[in-house]
């Protein structure tokens, strides 16, 4: 009779295969013990030993453990259970695995959104927050997410209102020379401590600015105050000594030449800066600490961009005509990309492992596919044909000539030095040149889909342009070429100095030195764009970046305000979840409402007296500063 019938009937029984293995192992153990006993007996006889002890030993060693109490009749139940779980995982089909992972991801999203039972209606919350997030992430992953938001700002009339613009100031005078680059860092998992001026729940949001004096300033977006300063190591001049003191140039962690590029990682943990000292410095945002320095470039670093993904992959573009790839998580160099024939002045990237760069006077924009180890070349030089009757919009694809009387050649107007580039989505990007032309590109076409010539007017003299709001200024902002030609004697630099896009949308901004920041709307067909707004801003717009964040608090929050209840009438809802709960509680959101209250769109601007790459123009009356323009609610 099998011994396992004596076991506990309530205990789980081992499988048949398990029992077979146990019996086979037991049998081999018995045979091995018998062989050992036989060998021991033969050796004892040869030595003349008695057989009584052997008989006694044999009575106790048959089978190793011959009593029922000593035998393992049930086996390793834990091992049986583990084997059962492993077999179930092996039997799981691909569809079942996808379903299990999807359920796990939804549970994670619910946990992040804070959708606890009893707080809000789960169905409404899923529809208004989780479903939209899943849809956006899926479209973003394939590069087809599109948010039509530009029309929201098309009919705004008071762009000249000073209340829209915040100027960040500090008594320490952080930037004695022109601001060359700005970026935004939002460290994940951090929030403001409730105070008398800010509601609870506002995420820490910092603006970093860099200057030609090699200094880096860290600003609190909500208060406008400078919270940290890394002084530059330039050789002291009268202006620098007046700003920082006579100790400028001592040993420090940072740059000792003009800083030309700055970028923050997607998770807000790292900051990278590059400049004419051929170095890339990496900083910790939460700790305000210098982490490492990369010195592999042979010339100035003019462009930096972090990949929009969980892995902190950094792309650097240099005047040495190379692009280098870095792994910031491991603080290591990855590879170098070659191909441009002139200085690389700008780089941009999104979620995919690829980047786009401008080659200055080689008149090419190149898309680098890192995994495929290949590149696509887009040529922006050559001539462009357009109608002479005041029309400066050039459609490069499928243009038909209408006769010599209605057409003229504009040699080089669409080319020049390509100095700026920004990606709209994974398939479309815009570029800007020193001739003032802005082009819209598709990764599947070698020529631009659409080009706007003289996007910021026609100017070449280093004198202040028409005052914003004047007749000439309004005409120039509206793109009236005849009016611009009429005031050419007071015109300014029309080169495109900076570009910024709202990712995966139809809105982008361009900066120059003509006294305006211009907002552009990409058509639904994504084959052309048009001007929707001109924001007055004196000086060189050396850097632009968009920021989506909650509205600035208008009413101070007292220390006795109850911040635990997100729907309290005395507390302004700050996060998207809080606003969704407040809207659901008030009935503002129906079961078919598409989203909660939208965030506000801001435009961060780095303004300087000079162009970031040189000193071809200079505006003495302009203050080097960081400004934030409130565009409006999304």
Descriptive terms for the model:
about 625 residues, alpha+beta, Methylamine Dehydrogenase, Chain H, 3 domains, 5-stranded antiparallel sheet, 4-stranded antiparallel sheet, 9 helices, about 20% helix
Corresponding CATH architecture of the largest domain? 7 Propeller
The Cα radius of gyration reads 35 Å
Number of domains: 3
Task: Give the strand line-up of the largest sheet.
Answer: 19-24-23-22-21
Report the sheet with the most strands, covering strand number, pairing sense and barrel closure: 5 strands, antiparallel
- What CATH calls the topology of the largest domain is Methylamine Dehydrogenase, Chain H
Structural class: alpha+beta
How many β-strand runs? 31
Tell me the overall shape.
globular
Find the CATH superfamily of the largest domain.
YVTN repeat-like/Quinoprotein amine dehydrogenase
Low-confidence spans: pLDDT under 50, at least 5 residues? 1-9, 49-68, 115-120, 382-411, 460-491, 555-574, 587-597
* The CATH class of the largest domain: Mainly Beta
Beta strand %: 25-35%
Give the helix tally. Answer: 9
- How far do the termini sit from each other? 79 Å
Q: Helicity, in percent?
A: 10-25%
Mean pLDDT: 74
